[in-house]
Automatic annotation (TrEMBL):
GO MF terms held by the record: protein-N-terminal-alanine acetyltransferase activity
Domain spans labelled N-acetyltransferase: 7-157
Pfam families: Acetyltransf_1
Name under which the protein is recorded: Ribosomal protein S18-alanine N-acetyltransferase
E.C. numbers: 2.3.1.266
Length: 165
């Protein structure tokens, strides 16, 4: 449990994108980090929802995005990214960002899918606490490192079953 609660998340804005690209390059240097243009395209897509976590001074310390796919009566969601500045990890920002993504899915009554590195134990534990289970393994998913990923899924309607420590 973090010693200080994370601030509420808000919508990611175009002004946030250079900081997202900076964090992305730092966090995912070995696995093809998204460039600024990638973030611009993601934020513009109507089917995507992106959120920001900020420090007390307003500095962007994390971001997350999810896509809402499929027909209105049969939606599914795919987590595109969740990232938190290493100097702000362990303070609840990742959980707050994930909760924002899951709220989008819950409003759509949608299952949620994501990929996570098989060696990212803290993220896997967070996902499991919020109703995700491993559905399979994608070998060499992350490039160029060749790291494997678990595909995880949270069925629609799981919000009432989540563990909120």
């Amino acid at each position: 449990m973090p010693d200080t609660p994370a601030a509420p998340v808000s919508a990611l804005t175009p002004a946030d994108l250079p900081r997202c690209a900076e964090l992305e390059a730092q966090l995912f240097a070995g696995d093809s980090p998204w460039p600024l243009a990638g973030f611009v395209a993601e934020l513009r897509a109507d089917h995507n929802r992106y959120f920001a976590a900020r420090a007390g001074d307003g500095t962007l310390v994390g971001y997350a995005g999810v896509s809402v796919l499929g027909p209105v009566d049969d939606r599914e969601c795919e987590v595109h990214t969740i990232a938190v500045d290493p100097t702000h990890q362990g303070r609840g920002h990742g959980r707050a960002l994930l909760d924002a993504l899951l709220a989008v899915a819950d409003r759509e009554n949608a299952a949620v899918y994501l990929e996570v590195r098989t060696d990212n134990a803290p993220a896997i534990a967070l996902y499991e606490r919020t109703g995700f289970t491993v559905a399979g393994t994608r070998r060499n998913y992350y490039q160029p490192s060749g790291a494997d990923a678990y595909t995880m899924v949270r069925p629609a309607g799981e919000s009432a079953k989540e563990d909120h420590p």
